[in-house]
Amino acid sequence: MIALLIGAGVALLVALIGTPLFIRFLVAKSYGQFIRDDGPTSHHTKRGTPTMGGTVVVAAVLISYFVTHLIMWMMNPHSAGPSASGLLLLFLMVGMGFVGFLDDYIKISNKRSLGLNARAKLILQAAVGIIFAVLVLQFPNEDGLRPASTQISLVRDIPWLDLAFGGTVLGAILFIVWSNLIITAATNGVNLTDGLDGLAAGASIMVFGAYTIMGIWQNNQACGSPKEAGSGCYQVRDPMDLALLAAILSAALVGFLWWNTSPAKIFMGDTGSLAIGGAVAAFAILSRTELLLAFIGGLFVLITLSVIIQVGFFKLSGGKRVFKMAPLQHHFELKGWAEVTVVVRFWILAGLFVAAGLGIFYAEWVVLL
User: Fold this and answer.
1) N or C, which terminus of the chain has less Cβ within 10 Å?
2) Closest alpha carbon to 66 in 278, 246, 244
């Protein structure tokens, strides 16, 4: 618990202090956001607001994680250092953040609201996702437990939903496909949620708060050996290190939200939204709670569904729309809701989804006792 407090504290300070410094740098370079012409007219006043703020969040997470482990080592040389699970999560977060950074930089340099084309973005995301999926099936600990398994999970691995039913090679391929579906859904979900001042950051704080609680619980109820599975204990590698990273991410986003809340002085950009989405997906896979992500990240799911429904209905109906505009948050803006009203009410929805996810997580454990 001391490590969590240290990590969260360092992340909060780095984000709080680093964000305004980064804003000054971006302003000096004239690196501002370009706004879509077909969006709400109220957004046109945001043109020129510094973007790529997710760079600060990623930097705060990296600094805090390694500084925390250094401090813990200085306090106790026998303490565990960075874990395989923690490093793999950082890899996916940074990798997706880099894809987002390229997208943001192209927008800024070309002075337009469009960055990487869809194919290039998909290829880069797939490359990072495939590497991550291959690596998480490696690095067994002394008990033979790997960061992830080929079994699909809800609140723990489900033995009868094992993707390796057809053999090791087929299982690995199916796991790579499954993992990339989760990664693509999470990154796009957070990316679509971004767009109103503080919406994605505030919702993500709650999501990472949930993973902090679950990581602590999984650590306290960890199986003593792989043979104990099914007794209510959890077979998760490095749950406390995952809890540390979740706490760090929440704190970093709190520091960023101080400057991102309406009226935003900086946007997270695709750098931030893709990095956060990558981290969310990694938590779901590494904590063995893949299907539970649909509840914990329910707001991201809802907003993504609004886009799918809008596009699908538009094509099938020959140009008709279900919503005034998608993603869903812009529909309510065009109905006359103030931006702050939309953000706060969507935060409430995010909190309710997170509470439902935690309720399912805890209820399953109680039933097994």
Assistant:
1) C
2) 244
Query: Cβ distance 309 to 322 under 8 Å?
Result: yes
- CA–CA distance from 147 to each of 82, 160, 178, 250, 330 (Å)? 13, 19, 15, 22, 38
335 or 226, which is more confident? 335
- 223-227-229 Cα angle (round to 5): 55
| pLDDT > 70? residue 113 | no
Work out the end-to-end distance of the chain between its first and last CA atoms, rounded to an integer number of angstroms: 26
For the entire predicted model, the pTM comes to 0.93
Q: pLDDT (tens digit, 9 = 90+) per residue, 1-59?
A: 899 999 999 999 999 999 999 999 988 877 765 555 455 555 545 666 888 999 999 99
- Which residue, chain included where needed, has tokens 């990240």? 297
- 3-state SS of the chain is CHHHHHHHHHHHHHHHHHHHHHHHHHHHHCCECCCCCCCCHHHHHHCCCECCCHHHHHHHHHHHHHHHHHHHHHHCCCCCCCCHHHHHHHHHHHHHHHHHHHHHHHHHHHCCCCCCCHHHHHHHHHHHHHHHHHHCCCCCCCCCCCCCCCEEECCCEEEEEEHHHHCHHHHHHHHHHHHHHHHHHHHHHHHHHECECCHHHHHHHHHHHHHHHHHHHHHHCECCCHHHCCCCCECCCCHHHHHHHHHHHHHHHHHHHHHHCCCCCCCCHHHHHHHHHHHHHHHHHHCCCCCCHHHHCHHHHHHHHHHHHHHHHHHHHCCCCCCCCCCHHHHHHHCCCCHHHHHHHHHHHHHHHHHHHHHHHHHHHHHHC
Q: What is the chain's mean pLDDT, rounded?
A: 91
Comparing 156-165, 264-273, 285-294, which segment has the lowest mean pLDDT? 156-165
- At 315, which amino acid appears? K
